[in-house]
Structure formats: structure tokens, C-alpha cells
# Entry
Amino acid sequence: MTQTDPHWWTATETLAALQARRIGAVELLDHMLDRQARHGAAVNAVVEVQADQARAEARAYDAGARRGALAGLPMTIKDTFEVAGFGCTGGIPELAGHRSPADADAVAELRKAGAVVWGKTNVPLAASDHQSYNPLHGVTRNPWNPDRTVGGSSGGAGAALAAGLTALELGSDIGGSIRVPAHYCGVWGHKPSYGIVPQRGHVPPMPGTLTDSALSVCGPMARSAADLDLALGLLTAAPTEGWHLRLPEARVTGLTGARIAVWTGGNPVDPDYAAAIHGFAGDLARAGAKVTPLDAAPLPLDGDSDLYIALLFATIGADLPPEALDAYATAAAAFPADSLPARVARATKSSHGHYMHLYERQQRHIAAWAAWFQSFDALICPVAMNVAFPHQTEDGHGPIPQMFRTLAVGNEERPYMENLFWPGIATLAHLPATARPLPGKVHGMPAGIQIIGPAFGDRTTLALARAMDAAFGGFSPPPGF
# Structure
């Protein structure tokens, strides 16, 4: 397999080939559909295909009837986004028969730009796990090792990118759901600053809901930082009810002189993974960046994991019926009162007054980060506690089984839900974070970093990721694909 194969082209490379007429939109779509037919079962990333609808759209682009920045690009979409003509389940059995009457707002922007959506990709039940499996569509397997998870909740998206089934994806992220699959699958993902990409049409919450989540974002996944940059520009292009977004220009144009802090302490992390990040930090310094390894956590991180868990599960709990809230409480009764499961269960039953208290603490936290980023352009840190771990799917679906699970981190077992801590740094503070792979592997698996920037500093984190792509190379396919 070579990078000259169309299924390994980046989205940018694919669009250049389409525009130069080196390949037609229908020809390319048929190539991707054939690849899905031959290799899709090995990973179970794509859970629905609408070939006729996609082929009709591709023919229109070949005929010159439609144009756009993504004209003729075949792609898949995470099965938490409404796409007209497709089902949308979010892995929830009660939505097995739901068909989308219209596109989610973010999907509409991609399709308006010319994207040809041909498939939907797998997620965990209600998009609520760092594994992607559900009662409707089964388990998605990592292209690098089928015995390992792909992450979640955009796990099908990450696997489809890694397996050469799509060049661009649309993910969503509240607990690392873009960044963790990118890290586990060796691809790229961008968690935007909060609020800059529309959420309407994302499931969960249930179809038809108009209220945005207080923490969740929607953003692109791809096989290069240039593709993330392109997609984010399209996702943020539409004016919204009287206001127009104008993101600040990137603080840096390359690695030279970039002020980068590196931190791998405080939260649990595999020692070999942490060592790989510090090794990469040395590479960045040799490339001209001003790298500062941090011996202590950045000041804004004091107490951030407790606040994040409280806000995250208060947000989740607000949409749950009484029997689901009781299930959290029942599960938590098996643990000490100060344990993570107990804190999670209490948070799901937060009152409105308590939630507003948490919201005020979050705003102070955001302000503290704004001051911290006066001294740095970016913070590099782990995406999760470890690389992709072996599947843990036999104990049920959803958050309750996760309260009892553990993950091996170095020589110790850590609570499974502590895997939320590293991605929670950017989520809690509404900060942009770009995930990209490290140049080498850790324990034989891909491993990534997250590049966290100041509020609305999306162009800065993407510019740094693009510079890293240029300096250290891009995507490498998994063996056998």
C-alpha cells in the first residue's frame, strides 16, 4: 500500500486531484465504497451506507452543477449528527428507526461546501464512552490492533480515517471524544473553542432539541492539520443570528520562537507515554521553539478535575430520567464517599443553584487561563492516560459499568473514568485543542499530544500542528491496510 492510493490521500490532496480532473467524483466515491466493502468489516467503523444518494451528488459535481471548497469530496459523518436521508441513532436503541429529516447545522455547512456524505460512523451508547460500541452496531476495532479500542465517542470516525475509509470526518467532544480517538488511532482532530461551531442537530440530546450543551463542541477530524484548518474554516463560516465570528490570527507562523509549555504531571499517565512526549518536546526545541517543561501544574489547573467532573455530570444528569439517576446512585454506593464514582453520582443530581455556583467557578477558571496564556502560546500535554487499551465491553453499555472499570497505567490500575482528566483540561476552560500523533509509537500503538491554546486561539493551535506536520511528517497507515 502506498500513499499514492486515493484512499490514503489527505482531504487537501484529494480536492487538488478532483479540481485538476485527475480523478472524478463518482470514480473516487466508487473507490471508497469498494474499499469499505473489502475492508470495512475488519474495523466495523461505518454503520450505515447510502450509496445511491451519494452517487447522485457526485454525478452533479462531475457535471459541474455544483461547486464549493469540498466539491466532490466523499466523507463519512459520526452517527451523532443528523444527515438528511440517513438514520441518526447516537448508539441509542430507542432511535433505531429514526431517520433525519434535515442536516445538522455543522453538516449543512460541509455539504454546502460540496462534501458527498456516503456513510455514518459508529459511537458508544449515547456517545458516552472512550470505547465505541453499542447494542445496535457492535464494537469498532482499532486498525492498528483489533484487540484494542478506537476511543470514543468519535471512535468510528477515528477508525475510518486510520483505515483509509474517509479523508475527513465531523466529530464532537465533551470528554475528549475527538481527541482521544485521534490519539488512539494515529490521526488528527481539533476540539474548537466553545461555541464557534453550531451544535444544533447533534444527538444526544434527543432529536429536535434546540438547547446547546454547556461543555460540548463539534469539530473536524482528518489525516493532517491542513485538513483540520480547511474544515474548521467552513464549519465557522456561517453568521449566526446577527453576529459574525472573527477568530484572532495565529500568534505564530511556525515553530521558531513559539512559546510552548509541556506538562505531563498531576493526572495519571503511562511513564513511557510521558517520556515520548518529553522526547518530542526536545525535538520541538531543536526546531526552534521556546520549550518550557513544567515541574508543577499551571496555576489554573488547581482543582480543575474536580470542577470538570462536577460540571460534566451535572450537564449529563440534567437530561436523564429518574431511574437513570438512581442507577448512578446505586452504583456509587459500592464506593467510598470521596471516590470518583461517588462524586460522579452526586453531580448527576445537582440542583440549578449548585450548577450556577459551578458555572461561576468555571468563569473564574477561564479567566485564570487567559492570564496564563499571556506567557505562553500553547500547552502540550497527554490526551489520555495511556495508548489504546484492550476492549472492555462485556460488562454492559453506558456510564454505569465505567464506574467499576480500571485501566492499566504503568504499573498500577487506575479508575477508568480518570481517563477524562487529561481531555477535561481544555473542555472545562472552553479552550481549543488540536490533537496530532507523535512521530513514533508507544507500546507498539499510535500516541498523540494535545496542543491547547488560549480562548479562540484555534488558528494558533492549528498553525503549530501544521508546522509540526511539516517538520516531523504526516500520517502513516497501519500495517495490513
About this structure: The chain has 15 helices and 15 strands. The CA atoms of residues 44 and 106 lie 24 Å apart. The chain has a mean pLDDT of 96. The chain has one domain: 6-302+363-472.
